[in-house]
Design goal:
It is a single chain. With about 290 residues, the protein is an alpha+beta fold. The chain is about 60% helix and about 20% strand.
Length: about 290
């Protein structure tokens, strides 16, 4: 019995170890290949539970999800020979497991280096045929779509991966160029501001000139109407006075003399040298007034 236990227990343990080494699981998030002494004997193993021969067979698994490759910022020249610092990223996933394993040995870091080289070459070629304006604004989406399509064909053929998307996160000018570009932009904006201010001043001068002209016309018209009204009033007053004085000329002479006395003797310091018998004092002399 003791001998049987000594044989049975090691056998069970060995059997369990062999069984665990013979079973492997591929999840839905993975792609896998089965190897026999390093040679692929089953490509793209389906998700699920599978068996293999211990020691003879090995299994390599790869992430089947969409992964992001964030490239380091690189400097590219445009068709105008202006340098731009471009920060980009790539969305990719394994499409051909056999080619991916054959090319990279299943090393994701090696794949990243190879893919970055191709992205860098594609961006350099495309940027070299476009101006800064086309790259930054007008043709940016078209550029990215065209480059992603071209890169996808190369990546599938050479690396066994599919490029889902290629995008530029940021485009900057190099630090040594940014200051001069900023100064040019500031100068241009200042020139435009001066031009707009000059146009505004011109319009303002026209408005002021029109307002001054209208003011002069309005004042002249008002003055003319005032003078006409005043002249009409004076004529009417003169006519009224004439009608009144024609009825009693003596009363007219009397009122005129009173006005003359009032204006003449307005100041106490005034001195008037005149003959007492003058007609000027006739209304102050009782005898003359009675004779009249």
């Amino acid at each position: 019995m003791k001998t049987l236990k000594l044989i049975l227990y090691p056998t069970l343990v060995l059997g369990f170890i062999l069984l665990s080494q013979s079973i492997f699981v591929v999840s839905e998030k993975e792609r896998a290949v089965k190897l026999r002494f390093g040679e692929i004997i089953e490509a793209d193993v389906r998700p699920g539970l599978h068996f293999k021969l211990p020691i003879i067979n090995t299994v390599r698994k790869f992430d089947a999800r969409i992964l992001t490759l964030d490239a380091a910022p690189q400097s590219y020249l445009t068709s105008e020979k202006k340098a731009l610092t471009v920060d980009s990223f790539v969305k990719w996933r394994v499409s051909d497991v056999v080619k991916y394993f054959t090319t990279t040995g299943g090393d994701e870091e090696r794949l990243r280096r190879l893919l970055i080289q191709r992205v860098d070459a594609g961006l350099r070629n495309e940027f070299g045929t476009r101006t800064v304006k086309e790259v930054v604004s007008g043709q940016r989406d078209e550029l990215m779509d065209k480059l992603a399509t071209h890169l996808n064909l190369i990546a599938k053929d050479e690396l066994g991966v599919e490029v889902i998307d290629l995008r530029v996160k940021k485009i900057d000018l190099p630090p040594e160029v940014s200051e001069s570009v900023f100064n040019r932009m500031r100068t241009e904006r200042e020139r435009l501001a001066k031009e707009l201010r000059a146009q505004g001043n011109e319009v303002a001068e026209k408005i002021r000139a029109t307002a001054d002209k209208d003011k002069t016309i309005i004042l002249a018209s008002a003055y003319r109407e005032a003078e006409e009204i005043k002249g009409s009033g004076d004529a009417e007053a003169t006519s009224t006075y004439a009608n009144a004085y024609s009825k009693d000329p003596e009363f007219y002479d009397f009122t005129r003399s009173l006005k003359a006395y009032e204006s003449t003797f307005e100041s106490k310091s005034d001195i008037l040298l005149i003959n007492p018998d003058s007609d000027f004092f006739k209304y102050l002399d009782d005898s003359k007034a009675q004779n009249k």
